[in-house]
Design brief:
- It is a single chain.
- By secondary structure, the chain is of the alpha+beta class.
- Helix content is about 40%, strand content about 25%.
- The radius of gyration is 26 Å and the shape is flat.
- A hairpin with a 4-residue loop joins strand 4 and strand 5.
- Strands 1-2-3-5-4 form a five-stranded mixed barrel.
- Helix 3 packs across helix 4.
- It starts with 12 loop residues before the first strand and ends with a strand.
Length: about 260
């Protein structure tokens, strides 16, 4: 059960479990709010006319809804399924999964400290949630940089927290890619391409970059980094270095992005 209490706010996205589907609407429980009951009117299930509501939603499903309104005095929570797009749904589901994982991790930390989960939240959990945005973000950040965490916090719990984070949280990274199209009519063209690509890899510094041939004149570049901003900056440095080097050698090069 989630530790979130009270009621959600209007406009908030919430994860719900579908309990009962009627012709006039859907009754759900809000997973993050102690299983409080919410209602999706049939008009808010899908865009357009809904002839058979079960074509769109069924009992037992997990769905992401937008909160339309809350009457805390009556305990009413009105929800909309159709107001949530695919991007919002994926983001909210991932956030919810991260939250559930963080709850499991805090249980492990509590066991190793021989204290209750409530004591863990009182001692450091609530503070970390506020400092990092979410408790999972705290675990993720600690897994990436435990030394900085040691500088910020002290106490018997710190090493156990770092230990659990390191064991259970994969350090996040992103990958972006593109295709270099490189043409040269000079006898030294092959060598010029090789030198230009090596120049690009050197421009990346310590960041992870790989360039492989996918059949002349195309070469795939893959940049791996901690986040998209860093990855895009590295891609720009590498592509600029490759194109400038190859142009000086009399060739023509262009970078085409496939996944953006």
């Amino acid at each position: 059960m989630s530790r979130t209490k009270g009621f959600p706010e209007s406009g908030e996205l919430v994860v719900c479990s579908v309990v009962n589907v009627k012709n006039f609407g859907v009754f759900v429980t809000l997973d993050e709010y102690d299983d409080r009951e919410g209602f999706i009117h049939v008009r808010d299930v899908a865009s357009g006319w809904v002839k058979y509501i079960r074509d769109f939603i069924r009992e037992g499903q997990k769905v992401v809804c937008k909160v339309l309104g809350v009457d805390s005095s009556k305990g009413h929570i009105d929800l909309s399924l159709k107001s949530v797009n695919d991007h919002q749904r994926r983001g909210k589901v991932q956030q919810w999964k991260n939250s559930k994982k963080a709850e499991k991790l805090i249980e492990i930390v509590s066991e190793r400290l021989s204290i209750s989960v409530d004591e863990s939240y009182d001692m450091f959990g609530t503070e970390l949630s506020e400092a990092y945005g979410t408790l999972y973000d705290a675990f993720e950040t600690v897994a990436s940089n435990p030394e900085e965490f040691r500088k910020e916090y002290s106490g018997d719990w710190v090493e156990k927290f770092i230990e659990v984070a390191s064991e259970n949280v994969a350090i996040p990274f992103v990958k972006i890619d593109g295709i270099f199209e490189m043409r040269s009519f000079k006898p030294s063209g092959v060598d010029d391409i090789r030198r230009a690509l090596m120049t690009g890899i050197e421009a990346a510094g310590e960041e992870e970059v790989s360039i492989t041939s996918v059949g002349s004149p195309k070469y795939r570049i893959v940049v791996t980094a901690d986040d998209y901003k860093i990855a895009e900056d590295v891609m720009k440095k590498v592509s600029t270095a490759v194109i400038e080097s190859f142009s000086k050698a009399g060739g023509e090069a262009v970078l085409k992005r496939e996944n953006r």
